[in-house]
Each structure stands twice: as structure tokens, then as C-alpha cells.
Amino acid sequence: MSSCAGNEPFALQVLGNSMAPEFPDGCVIVSEPVGRLQNGSFVIAEHGGEVILRQLDRDNDRWYLKALNASYPVLEITGPQDIMGVVIQRAGHKRADRKSYL
Is residue 29 scored above 80 in pLDDT? Predict the structure, then answer.
């Protein structure tokens, strides 16, 4: 990701099952660093030195990152500065596998 300009969309491959079934292991997502943060948005964030994909959950002044797979814990972050991008698309080989989140 370091070779992209700060405001350019970037693609990442999902590793693991924390966001299944919406984002299965191995699928490719496109994220926009300047995307609009809304409650329920799927985001790329940095947490504990790792880059993770989670769903944003805001509760008043508190910010949480939730996995769709209930086996993973809910994580609290300090705010939008921990978010690297908003997912705008799930890519796929088949048309049925593609989805836009705009």
C-alpha cells in the first residue's frame, strides 16, 4: 500500500474468516482512503500493529470494530485516525461475487 498516493483507492486480499460470509477468505476488496465513515461501513483499520477488515460501530463518542464472525472480539479504537480506508467494492471472478458498497 505504501506505493499508492494517500487519496487513491487500493485493493487488498482478505485473509481468514473474521468477516465471512460477506468477505470470504481470499476475496479481493477495494478500499478508498478518503471514503465517508458511516455507522455500519466496512473499514480497513490498524489495530495492534495489524491491518484488519471490520465493520464500524459507533456508539456516541466511542468507536468499535466488529467482525461478522462472532468468534472474534469487538475491538475499541480511539477514533477515525485508526481507519485507513472504507471498503467500496468486493471484487470477484463471477459477476455474482462482485458487490459495491457505495
Answer: yes
**Distance, CA of 45 to CA of 99 (rounded, Å):** 20
Q: How far apart are CA 36 and CA 17, in angstroms?
A: 25
Task: Count up the domains in the chain and report the number.
Answer: 1
Q: Return all residues near 39 (Cβ < 8 A) that are at least 6 apart.
A: 56, 57, 58
In a domain, 3, yes or no: no
**pLDDT tens digit string along 56-78?**
999 999 999 999 999 999 999 99
Number of Cβ atoms within 10 Å of the Cβ of 89: 17
